[in-house]
Amino acid sequence: MALYVYDHGYRIQTSKDALFPKGGVKSLKESKAMHRSADIEDRFRANEDRFVIPGPEKGPENTDNMTRAYASVSEESTDGTESSQLSVSRLMVSPVHTIRPTTPINLAWKRMLSLEISHLIVSNSDQRPLGLISKADLLEAGPDSIRPVEEIYSQKLIAATPETRIQDVAINFIENDINSIPVVDKDDKIVGIVCRTDLLRLLISGLHLERWV
Fold first, then answer.
1. What is the 3-state secondary structure (H, E, C) of the chain?
2. Where is the CBS domain (predicted)?
3. What pLDDT is attached to residue 115?
């Protein structure tokens, strides 16, 4: 499983399971309730070999550009073996929005709102990942606070590489109850981010579950 733990921006050898026990990361545990992905996820139910969203049997076709993009990934991945090896590089959002540790909480909040995103990666001048801030973290700290974000983010985080299997990321989301994972290259530089909503769009696009195992 190509997932790594970073501490203060540097990859460490400590086992992921030792630092992030299955069941949730405390500092990010509340973030699930803040994401539309959590609401959507709760509405998923199993139907034979696929996930479907409860609701009317037929509805207007979704012509959203993002949905079409995910549909194209699904169509290309018709072979079961190829699909099970679908990598993060095919799904991650890039470039990714970052902030510095000294950024005031209120400015981080305003940036999230203006960009219409739910996460910001905290990085240093070398673009190494230092931490991850969610909307829930900022709300808990007080979105009008002028304290720096370095006072509220966890200095240890889990990161993936572009080659990491999407299946491994999905498992990590469930086991650690987190909603997003930064993606880093071989030089430990941030190159993207993957969120639960990205995986949900992939499921909605029609990718069968049997191709993930």
1. CCEEEEECCEEECCCHHHHCCCCCCHHHHHHHHHCHHHHHHHCCEEECCEEECCCCCCCCCCCCHHHHHHHHHHHHCCCHHHHHCCEHHHCCECCCCEECCCCEHHHHHHHHHHHCCCEEEEECCCCCEEEEEEHHHHHHHCCCCCCEHHHCCCCEEEEECCCCEHHHHHHHHHHHCCCEEEEECCCCCEEEEEEHHHHHHHHHCCCCHHHHC
2. 92-149, 153-210
3. 94
Predicted TM-score (pTM) above 0.70: no
Closest CA to 41 of 213, 204, 164, 191: 204
| pLDDT at 194 > cutoff 70 | yes
* pLDDT average, residue stretch 13-41: 47
- Tell me the torsion sign for CA atoms 50, 52, 57, 60: negative
Query: What is the rounded CA–CA span in Å between residue 200 and residue 182?
Result: 17
> What is the per-residue pLDDT across 136-167, written as a single tens digit (0 to 9) for each?
999 999 999 999 999 998 778 899 999 999 99
CATH dotted code for 27-55+62-212: 3.10.580.10
For the four alpha carbons of 127, 197, 140 and 5, in that order, the dihedral sign comes to negative
Write the CB contacts of 116 (distance below 8 Å, at least 6 apart in sequence). none
| Percentage of the chain exceeding pLDDT 90 | 44
